[in-house]
Specification:
Blueprint (H helix, E strand, L loop, with lengths): L26 E3 L10 E11 L5 E9 L13 E7 L33 H11 L15 H8 L3 E5 L18 H4 L5 H13 L14 E11 L2 H10 L18 E5 L14 H13 L21 E7 L11 H7 L7 E7 L11 H13 L11
Helix pairs in contact: 2-8, 4-5
């Protein structure tokens, strides 16, 4: 496995930067688990945000050399999977105003350390790609998902979440409890910016040129663990996009995959186990005014539900509380609302199923590309 190198720029913490100077992004060869027949690249780009530690947040593109429109004369639009990584939840119990990211916290004692620093997010991205060692014995990433998607001709985008906010917060709009955290969180902003990079000239004042042309009607959202909430959060956003006073959906998806989500956060109630209490206390930081149901999959407005949705989970996943996905599963299985729904139930003692099982990952990629007819019999409901 190869540890990646990264761009480093001095930035001001907490600010949005949508007028960046153009810069050359760093790229390296993608290392899939199976032969792809040509070179694919992993390339980093500036997302337009700063992580809490002041470093630039990034997103990564995985794409084939033959479709690099900066170098090839003829290219074709590619379907895109936007992957929202897992693990994006953390907080410091009693932050020091002089060093609010330091000290005891939800994950401070983990091998990977606090999840509010840029290096953690970068490492976790490459762990997801299968190009950096695992530091978790329950959540295993071997890179099977990115391999399967590449085999099926999907380009990929993965934005970093270094805010530990379950992809929920957007400073200035859906804010965390700044008084408790002493920094602003912007995970949902990162998810939104990634989508806008994929579908428009973004940022408007100085757009970043992507290496490939994207088929904007073939954008799939893939959420791993906490990343499932990123996808559902995006699909719940409504805005007056044309100035006529009506609310529209600026973000749409051809399909949605959720692997090991916790869709109903109300299961983390006070008075439960010590672990649940810690989660509950952390959620108070992200949802200071309540409303944990906002952004949940089952609360996506019905007219913006993708018509191809897969939900995969394990009954033996110790990180999924009982009952937390009941409403989401019922919705996916409701053919009157979702034409092509697929629920896959496993019994492995594992969190995240499709990134260490190549056969299952290929089934997911085939479902994304073909619908239910692409699911092998072994993985049929």
């Amino acid at each position: 496995m190869r540890a990646p190198g990264f761009l480093a720029l001095a930035l001001v913490a907490g600010c949005w930067r949508i007028d960046l100077e153009q810069m050359e992004a760093e790229r390296l060869p993608f290392e899939p688990l199976a032969e792809l027949g040509e070179t694919w690249w992993v390339e980093s780009f500036d997302l337009g945000l700063s992580c809490p530690d002041g470093e630039p947040a990034q997103f990564y593109m995985i794409y084939p050399d033959s479709q690099d429109q900066r170098e090839q004369e003829f290219t074709e639009p590619m379907p895109l999977a936007i992957i929202f990584h897992s693990g994006a939840f953390d907080y410091i119990y009693d932050p020091d105003p002089t060093a609010p990211l330091e000290g005891p916290g939800l994950h401070a004692a983990d091998p990977g350390g606090t999840r509010l620093f840029t290096p953690w997010a970068q490492r976790h991205a490459f762990t997801t790609f299968g190009m950096y060692p695992n530091l978790d014995d329950v959540e295993i990433h071997d890179g099977t998902l990115t391999t399967a998607l590449a085999e099926r001709g999907f380009a990929m985008m993965l934005p970093l979440n270094c805010w530990g906010d379950m992809w929920h917060n957007r400073s200035g709009a859906v804010e965390n409890d700044y008084g408790a955290d002493l920094f602003y969180r912007d995970g949902r902003t990162a998810a939104e910016f990634a989508y806008y990079h994929a579908t428009s000239d973004f940022p408007p004042s100085n757009p970043i040129e992507l290496p490939i042309e994207i088929h904007t009607d073939q954008i799939f959202l893939v959420g791993l663990g906490e990343g499932g909430r990123a996808a559902s959060e995006l699909l719940t956003i409504q805005r007056d996009t044309d100035g006529n006073g009506g609310l529209d959906f600026p973000i749409k998806a051809a399909g949605l995959i959720m692997d090991s989500p916790v869709s109903d956060l109300t299961v983390y109630a006070p008075g439960g186990s010590e672990a649940f209490q810690r989660y509950h206390n952390g959620l108070l930081r992200l949802f200071p005014e309540g409303g944990r149901g906002k952004g949940a999959f089952q609360n996506i407005p019905r007219r913006n539900l993708p018509q191809r949705v897969g939900l995969l989970w394990s009954t033996e996943d110790s990180r999924i509380p009982a009952g937390s996905n009941d409403a989401a599963i019922a919705l996916v299985e409701d053919e009157s609302l979702i034409a092509e729904g697929w629920v896959f139930e496993d019994n492995r003692a594992a969190h995240i199923l499709i990134n260490d099982d190549l056969d299952l990952a290929r089934a997911v990629a085939d479902f994304m590309a073909q619908g239910p007819s692409g699911i092998p019999e072994a993985f049929q409901p």
